[in-house]
Amino acid sequence: MRLLLSALLVLLLTMTTQAASPPDDRPAYRLFTAEGKPVSFGKMAKALAAADVVLFGEQHNDPLAHWLELQVARELAERKAGQLVLGLEMFERDVQPLVEQYNVGELDAKAFEEQSRPWPNYQTDYKPLLELARQQKLRVVGTNVPRRYAQQVAKGSLTALDALPAEEKNWLAPLPIRVDYTLPGYQGMAQMFGGDAAHAAGVQNIIQAQALKDATMAHFIRQSRQPGQLLLHVNGAYHSDNHDGIVWYLRQAEPQLRILTISTVTQAQLGKLDKENLKKADYMLVVPEDMTKTY
User: Fold this and answer.
1) Where does the record place the Haem-binding uptake Tiki superfamily ChaN domain (predicted)?
2) pTM of the full predicted structure?
């Protein structure tokens, strides 16, 4: 009798283990802390809800990042009832009145999409966030510098902004903008674009254009957030990886801000965080290298 009970117990345990860990599992993503420890969505969300600013660094064509942004926004809207603000790199400061009109229902979708210069992947990747904001009555803030000014800087340095009318300067971070060329992200850009003496001026202008975007997004994140509120900001990961870019400008202006970052990376395997991705952000969203792209 005892042998029969023991055999049944072993069989039950085997079946339970197999059910919990199917051998053909194909995980779509994994979450890790900065140190490479696996973390659940719920535990991450709890920590995010205690921050003042959360920067969700995406790869713009990654569908899982866009899906998880929506999940994070929903979760934080519930945890921070009435105190969540949504910020988006994807809308520029000069169209903020249109963003506000659409958000409160004063502008229909057709007119909004015709006038606000949405990104080509707006329909699939960012419209769901705006629809959630309308449902949950979340304030939405476009934080990016109008791209024409970044283009001017890339061609002629930050001094190109000095002659702008005062009204247009309201769409930028306050001038003059300080640039720290030693930040890892900017050093990476220098290497990417050929940081030798022959290309120094041109590369420096490109970095200044990036800094203009980072500084402007940081400025309007701070301007749009009231005490006690949490601002969830969606941006390309390069703008917040390694806690520089937007993070650096936020800390220069308001050192006491509680800032948490998420970065999206691809890996061949999802079992552990690759060494080069350690400490890139407070939380790492890891997706398979062969994940389909939205464009």
Assistant:
1) 44-250
2) 0.90
